[in-house]
Amino acid sequence: MVSSPDRPLDTIPRLVAHHAQNRPDSAAFREKEFGIWQSWSWRQTASEIDALALGFLDIGVNAGDHIAIIGRNRPYLYWAMVAAQSVGAIPVPLYQDAVAEEMAYVIEHCSARFIVAQDQEQVDKIIDVKEELSGVEQIIFLDPRGMRKYERALLTEYSVLQAQGRENEAKLRPELDKRLAAQSGADTCAMLYTSGTTGRPKGVVLSNDNIIMTSKASCSFDGLRADDSVLAYLPMAWVGDFIFSVGQASWSGFCVACPESSDTMQHDLREIGPTYFFAPPRYFEGVLTSVMIRMEDAGDLKRVMFKHFMEFARTVGPDILDGKPVGLGKRLKYALGNLLVYGPLKNSLGLSRVRVGYTAGEAIGPEIFDFYRSLGINLKQLYGQTEASVFITQQPDGQVRSDTVGVASPGVELKIADNGEVFYRSPGTFVEYYKNPESTKSTKDTEGWVATGDAGFIEKDTGHLRIIDRAKDVGKMKDGSLFAPKYVENKLKFFPNILETVVFGDGRDSCMAMINIDLQAVGNWAERNNIAYSSYQELAAHVDVYATIQQHVEDVNASLAADEMLAGCQVSRFLVLHKELDADDGELTRTRKVRRSVIEDKYKDLIDALYGGKTEIYTETEVTYEDGSKGSIAATLEIRDVRRVAREEKAA
Question: What's the pTM value of the predicted model, to 2 decimals?
Answer without folding.
Answer: 0.83
